[in-house]
Amino acid sequence: MTRAFATQALPPWRRAVLKVGSSLLASAQGELSDRNARALAAFVAASRERGREVVIVSSGAVAAGRGRVGNVSRRSDGLVLRQALAALGQTRMIGLWQGLLDVPVAQVLLAHDDLRNRRRYLNARNTLVELLRLGAIPVVNENDTVAVEELKLGDNDNLAATVAALVDAELLLIASDVDGLYSRDPRLGKDAEPVGSVDAITAETYAMAGASRGAVGTGGMRTKLEAAGKAAHAGIATALFNGGDAGVVGNLAEDRVRGTLFRAAGSRLAARKYWLRHAPGSGARLRVDAGAASAIAGGASLLPGGIVGVDGEFARGDIVDVAVSERVIARGLCQYAAGEVCRMAGRRSHEIERLLGFSYGDSVVRRDDLVVTTEEAS
What we know:
Oligomer: single chain
CATH topology of the largest domain: Carbamate kinase
CATH architecture of the largest domain: 3-Layer(aba) Sandwich
Order of helices and strands: EEHHEHHEHHEHEEEEHHEHEHEHEEEHHE
């Protein structure tokens, strides 16, 4: 018999993101149910009465779409089919939340490019903040209908962490079908111990994670740890709890949680630096020499003289990785396109205009657009 989690206080918060997994909203057959959503919606309503704001990140569209069709086997799932199922089920999922809440519910669908492109990222932020100002409750989901496999965000746990940073939330709440993080998968042994709090997510923390339990969801404990880690880097605490336990959900309105609390990092990255660290990139890479790597670690811009190679294609303004040999040390917004960087690689900054016929500045990646990604460098 595994031990139960203790109840503990939530950190102070004014704005939170509540992520609700598919397993809480749909049966194994795919039909949507409000059995668990009712208590979660009551928590959102109680929070609003106290002057707080909640953004919901909700899974369930693909599962709801499958329930409407009824005769589609999961073994036949392909990208196009999942896109169609998402289109069929999205309205039902939004309707579920609207039926449980007395205030307007707004549908917000986000895709990979909305988070990679700085302008679209800020547009999404402005929309979400304005919806909250208007008194609406945004319900966010990945735009599965248009996402292609190589550009999918992948899971709503990580999307929820990104949204939490996007709206400057103080708390990320992950409602799951598990009670919290255990020292090992509780299905594999009775010696699994509940982990009440985590100060920093390490390799040992990831080793505790088991595989996904549900037939409906796409994420497992690992994606929840990834999300908590991203939130922590933005100064946001994360609470993981069983959203199917009405008593646990009821405690949230009293600022208490029975589950695992992942504490925020001591220092908050600037919003721009956080976006650069976690936004989907172009997949391209700038290879630099040791001198450039040292300068970047010291807070300098990346100049053309330190670049020794370019891997992949990218346009001006795309996010690229910066690497020494095969080790990525930083990522940032490139001021020049791939072909232009190839022409100026290894040359001095004052030669840029002569080489290209124009200049966007002396640096390939400005220090304000650059974030170090390795602990050794930072």
